[in-house]
Amino acid sequence: WGAMIGGYSLHGQGLRALELFHSMQQEDIEPNEIVFSSILKACGSIGDTKQGRLIHDQIIKSGLESNVVIGNTLIDMYSKGGSLQEAREVFDKLLNRDVVSWGAM
Fold first, then answer.
1. Do 50 and 75 meet the contact criterion of CB atoms below 8 Å apart?
2. Distance, CA of 82 to CA of 27 (rounded, Å)
3. What is the DSSP string of the chain?
4. Any residues with CB less than 8 A from the CB of 25 and at least 6 apart, and which?
5. Are 77 and 43 contacting, i.e. CB atoms less than 8 angstroms apart?
6. Of 67, 8, 69, 89, whose CA–CA distance to 43 is shortest?
7. pLDDT at 66
8. What is the pLDDT of residue 88?
9. Which of 3, 22, 44, 78 is an S-S bond match for 86, by CB 3.0 to 4.6 Å?
10. CA of 22: how far to CAs of 30, 35, 39, 58, in Å?
């Protein structure tokens, strides 16, 4: 699942990545940090911050919000969608910021 979602996301097929992500969830498979990161990249590439917010809610429920890779991807997704306030809120909540965090912000 993760490899396919990541592949679609990497090659500019964000809608296909989202379709596959939803299929994965219908089969009750829990996404991990790699899948979340890939699907957030897909949301950013197609400008779908609404879907990105729903996925962000899932990330919070799964306890992965403090993961720096996910945080960086959230910042990127919100920034690409023009939601700079939400990007800043994610940035401010990150416990361990790295150079990617600062660059994404």
1. no
2. 33
3. -HHHHHHHHHTT-HHHHHHHHHHHHHTTPPP-HHHHHHHHHHHHHHT-HHHHHHHHHHHHHHT-TT-HHHHHHHHHHHHHTT-HHHHHHHHHH-SS--HHHHHH-
4. 31
5. yes
6. 8
7. 87
8. 97
9. 78
10. 11, 12, 10, 13
Q: pLDDT for 72-98, tens place per residue?
A: 999 999 999 999 999 999 999 998 999
**For residue 7, which amino acid is it?**
G
For residues 34-50, b (16+ Cβ closer than 10 Å) or e, as one string? ebbbbbbbbbbbbebbe
User: Can you tell me whether residue 81 is helix, strand or coil?
Assistant: coil
The encoded tokens of residue 67 equal: 């993961």
Count other C-beta atoms under 10 Å from residue 55's C-beta: 22
The pair of structure tokens assigned to 26 is 């219908």
